[in-house]
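dude i think i finally got it to work??
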Amino acid sequence: MTTTGTPLVYLLSELDFVDSVDVYCPPINLNVEKTFIPENVNIVVTYDPERSLSTLNLFKIDWKKYDMVLFNIIPTMFGKSSLINLIGTIVPYSLTKLGFKNVRVILHNSTHTNDVERLGYRSRKDKIRRVVLSVVEKLTFNNVKIYFPLKLYVNAIRSQNKRSRVEHIDMKYLEGITTVYLNGKNKEKFLTRKKRIGNVPVVLLHGYWGPQKNLDLALSKLTAIRNRGVKFHLVLSGGMNKKFPGYKEYFEKLIKKYNSTIDEFCGYVVESEILPLFLRTDIVLIPYNTPGGHSGVLETALFFERKVICISYPEYVEQSEGHDNVTMTDYDRLEEVLEKCFLSLPIEVEKSQVSIYNKMEKAKEAIKVLLK
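look at this
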């Protein structure tokens, strides 16, 4: 249900021509995440991420009773989930070979488009996983209707494989939708943002932290800026990727090292708290080493109309098309760009509004391509 899965379900459930949606997924921890389940949505707990072979339960589902079957997959998330992702990629291919013509797959990245080693997967096992998965992906590309959120990836795969059936789906704004529903704001046209306290800019570092993200770079640049007397309020939030041995210790050392720079450390943020977190933010900083696909943090920032400073990659340039609140930079100029942004932020009025209705309608319209 993560990475656009939940908002996809919410939006599908609101389409006039969709009677019901069955969601086959891992257990939902209601003690941690507040969840809103529409009346026409049925949640079926099918597999456990800690037990990879439990994904084989997908083969027991009576797929014949569905008019459309959608899969939402992030293939290059290895670690404990590598077998899950492999099986998840095999299932739609198998269904197609069994004669099902109503199978659609959303892939967020691929071994054919992303640098798995730069994402942090460098072991011998990871290399084997990459080779095996690349073969399965190619079979899937040729036999199943695949949708990527980035045109960049569609073009890359088509250039490698003329027989592929990959297409583009516009998933702009989806990452911001779940928290809107969970806060009961999905029928609102606007959200209200109050004036920042003391008019000191609030800077947000948010994400699922792991080797892919250069947190040390961001914190070192922010420390240098603060040492020159520039005022800002830094919030560090998000969970930690536990699939990488040693990263937990490294992450904790960073928190300790930059303790005087980090004004708030929130840790994991439940979906319902994403909305107030982003509404009180002025600048979202995205300091990645390499993209793992389209950025969920960037999409959320775009949804809430926050200023973004981002390390420039083709993926993020594509995502940001049409948005003048995003500044792309490189590692060498990051500090300069950040400081200039802090000093040029306008003094805010008492309240400001963020438009959400049109964004949600645009997202709802975009996902209809999956049902054709």
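The radius of gyration is 21 Å.
im so relieved honestly
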